[in-house]
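agent> Task received from the user: take the single chain below, predict its 3D structure, and emit structure tokens. No templates, no multimer pairing.
agent> Plan: (1) validate residues, (2) run structure prediction, (3) serialize to tokens, (4) report one or two observations.
agent> Step 1 OK, no nonstandard residues flagged.
tool_call: predict_structure(input=
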Amino acid sequence: MKLVACLRVSSNGQLDAYGPDAQRADIKGWAKANGHKVISWHQDAISGATDAVDRPGLSAALQDLERADGLIVANLGRLARAVTTQEAILAAVWCRGYRVFTADQGEVMQDDPSDPMRTAMRLMVGVFAELDRLMVVKRLKDGRAAKAAAGKKATGSYAFGYKGHGKGRDRDEVPDPVEQVTKARIVELRQAGTSYRTIAATLDQEGRKPRRAKRWSAMTVRTIYERATA
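)
tool_result: status=success, residues=230
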């Protein structure tokens, strides 16, 4: 049987320990053990509560079903982590005559009036997947609130000149010695009347590295200077 695989990881890395490599390995292992062939792979980096129409990877997988027999995901939680979304996706696949499989449980069977427990068990899996997502979100929210109450940086990236230190609720921003020196150099040059463009070129010549880009830009230099002197 030809199958189209769809992987999903959370849009927030903190919410997802079951990454695409692990999902891919589980799907490959199940397909091989059961004599199926995965003909294409699609992936989303998005919350499992997101509607199917807003998931480009899933949308592409559903379109790809035209040349396959069914859809496979690592588990129902990878398909969706909201019961309504899970059921909508399953219905969309089934109504087109295709089948759905998970690497951990095998085929997800359609509703059968003579077997109401089948539907109930599937819905329960969806309920607990949604509950797990909501509990993780709550823990993260509570952790951020606790950090903010303690006067620590709770969310977002660190400004140039600072870096994260510690783990979990103890993580906070601390000065980055190398970036602090670069920031001081920017302030020194600017207060001497040097243009932002010239400062950027000077930093490149001196071998001072920006945080992400390969070279300094006048806009980045200006942002750092204005924050440093605000």
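agent> Step 4: summary for the user.
The chain has two domains: 2-130, 175-228.
agent> Done.
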